[in-house]
Amino acid sequence: MRAVVFERYGEPAEVRDVPDPEPAPHGVVVRVGATGLCRSDWHGWQGHDPDIALPHVPGHELAGTVEAVGGLVTRWRPGDRVTVPFVCACGRCASCAAGDQQVCERQTQPGFTHWGSFAQYVALDHADVNLVAVADELSFATAASLGCRFATAYRAVVARGRVAPGEWVAVHGCGGVGLSAVMIAAAAGARVVAVDLSPGALDLARTFGAARCVDASAVRDPAAAVRDLTGGGAHLSLDALGSPVTCAASVDSLRRRGRHVQVGLLPVDPAVPMARVIGLELELLGSHGMPAHAYPPMLESVRAGVLRPDLLVTSTIPLDEAPDALAAMGGSPGAGVTVIDPWR
Ligand SMILES: [Zn+2]
Ligand SMILES: [Zn+2]
After folding, report:
1. Which pTM value belongs to this model?
2. Domain 151-286, second-level architecture
3. Which residues form a coiled coil (predicted)?
4. Residue 90 CA: which ligand is closest?
5. Ligand 1 centroid to 49 CA: how many Å?
6. Which pLDDT value is given to residue 86?
7. d(CA 166, CA 55)
8. How remote is the CA of residue 149 from the centroid of ligand 1, in Å?
């Protein structure tokens, strides 16, 4: 099969022929229909993820068709249309038993712990625990975004952030996950303030339901701007980018007893204004994807047209363009979501 491979961190990846994967006894091989390009892929390529062994194939948000199944798999067969959370859980540890597969103690992650989906085929572990059926009317390009950024944003806003109608929600960083969060929070009845350096990203955020926008390149203190716009601060704020600056700005955006959810990965631990966390009784929450069993309410909102992840996909590129697109993820996140079609 053809795949995007890198031999060294931070050096150009290339498309080459590699052996097709085989399914584990509990796993499947999926023929990749589409795979999203995510900032986590860039972090992995830069060497920020200790799980990665070289040479490596990135890619962790995908949708496609089951090609082959291992002997222990009971719920899936070749031809099934599927997607998968980026955390593939073991199904047996204490966290899995508690329903918290997103923090499984023996998780695997395609594109991190093993070769990922910037390829024509990808192996996925513990298929009965982790695969999610994709309806025929949902395109692979749209479904691919559900595996990482959209599901992550959904769980961050709804389950971890406990968004409520009428609340102010600040979203710092309006790349793929941030725009998803804007759409999800607005659909939940919240009033959203979008914060980004890019006017293009803010235009998209407005399209997806942001009530207010803060151009972080034009104001001295974006958090103060959020507090002004929201009458004292957001109830819920997300760092959807993952940088020391946006993390601190998100915490500083909150009103008393507000909730910060860290969604974007941070290459280094940031300085968090902890005096403010104590004095205002703020909550600091992490969010790490979403387990397969929690997908049905989100999928129902997608089916009903309340949530429109299809609108987030702004371009589809062939595999040959993926290495350059991966390198470009290190800059300021482009507006919208790029999806790779590995068969083009
Ligand atoms: Zn991702
Ligand atoms: Zn587990």
Report:
1. 0.92
2. 3-Layer(aba) Sandwich (3.40)
3. none
4. 2
5. 13
6. 94
7. 49
8. 6
